[in-house]
């Protein structure tokens, strides 16, 4: 029988291991096979969870940034009936990272796929935003350059208003302030924008204001990972 692919969430802030389910602790204590976004980060996390774990006995396949995951290795492990864990750099695997390719391959092989409980920055940000949670869409990164960037923001604002749909974005940290400036430039004053940073950490920041309010007091954003939400 094919093996099992476990989707293992990783904390999205430092030293907040409690944000992951207890099941993850018992599972990672025994798993010997992993496909990960970053091998160094994965080893550090495993060591934090299990200080006495013998990491040399664990086989880790790192997802190449250009070539993608080693599907041949994954197929071999699953066909041998192995239990394989998938870990992202932070948060939940297969959400805004290459993990979805691994999951699709596992399904194609008839392997069991098990998602485990843990933090996801987009969902946490939506929960804390005060914006609509009945209908929402995650768009990842917006175009970098104009006019494509402004056109995309305007189009998604129209869609948000028409469907009462919260739009969710992320950005490369050093472009956080540029993205906020573009929201203030292209969006209507009544459109609501929420910024969520350092979720689950002690310095967690979640602020929601209208574009008009943000224009009066533009935020001084750090060059840290953030989630941006819009509802027109």
Can you walk through the features of this model?
This protein is of the alpha/beta class and 232 residues long. The protein has 2 domains: 4-115, 3-Layer(aba) Sandwich (Cobalt-precorrin-4 Transmethylase, domain 1), CATH 3.40.1010; 121-231, 2-Layer Sandwich (Methyltransferase, Cobalt-precorrin-4 Transmethylase, Domain 2). Helices cover 35% and strands 21% of the residues. It has 8 helices and 10 strands. The chain has helices spanning 22-30, 39-49, 71-79, 99-109, 121-129, 148-163, 176-186, 211-216; strands at residues 4-8, 33-36, 59-62, 83-87, 112-115, 136-138, 166-170, 192-197, 205-210, 226-231. A 5-stranded parallel sheet has the order 3-2-4-1-5, with helices on one face. Helix 6 (148-163) links the parallel strand 6 and strand 7. The longest helix is centred in the C-terminal third of the chain and has 16 residues, at 148-163. The N and C termini lie far apart (50 Å).
Structural descriptors:
232 residues, alpha/beta, Cobalt-precorrin-4 Transmethylase, domain 1, Methyltransferase, Cobalt-precorrin-4 Transmethylase, Domain 2, 2 domains, five-stranded parallel β-sheet, five-stranded mixed β-sheet, 8 helices
- Oligomerization state of this entry? single chain
In angstroms, what is the radius of gyration?
Answer: 20 Å
**What is the strand content?**
15-25%
Ranges where pLDDT stays below 50 over 5 or more residues in a row are none
Category by helix and strand content: alpha/beta
Quick summary:
The chain is of the alpha/beta class. The chain is 35% helix and 21% strand.
């Amino acid at each position: 029988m094919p093996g099992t692919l476990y989707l293992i969430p990783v904390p999205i802030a430092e030293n907040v291991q409690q944000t992951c389910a207890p099941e993850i602790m018992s599972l990672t204590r025994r798993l010997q096979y992993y496909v990960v976004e970053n091998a160094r980060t994965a080893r550090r996390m495993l060591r934090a969870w299990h200080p006495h774990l013998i990491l040399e006995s664990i086989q880790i396949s790192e997802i190449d940034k250009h070539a993608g995951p080693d599907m041949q290795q994954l197929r071999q492990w699953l066909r041998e009936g192995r239990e394989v864990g998938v870990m992202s750099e932070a948060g939940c695997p297969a959400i805004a990272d290459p993990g979805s390719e691994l999951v699709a391959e596992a399904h194609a092989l008839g392997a069991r796929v098990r998602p485990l409980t843990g933090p996801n920055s987009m969902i946490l940000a939506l929960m804390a935003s005060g914006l609509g949670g009945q209908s929402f869409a995650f768009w990842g990164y917006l175009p970098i350059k104009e006019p494509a960037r402004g056109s995309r923001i305007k189009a998604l604002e129209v869609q948000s208003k028409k469907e009462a749909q919260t739009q969710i974005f992320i950005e490369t940290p050093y472009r956080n302030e540029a993205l906020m400036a573009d929201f203030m430039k292209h969006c209507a004053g009544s459109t609501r924008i929420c910024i969520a940073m350092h979720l689950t950490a002690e310095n967690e920041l979640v602020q929601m204001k209208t574009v008009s309010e943000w224009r009066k007091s533009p935020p001084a954003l750090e060059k840290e990972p953030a989630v941006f939400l819009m509802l027109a």
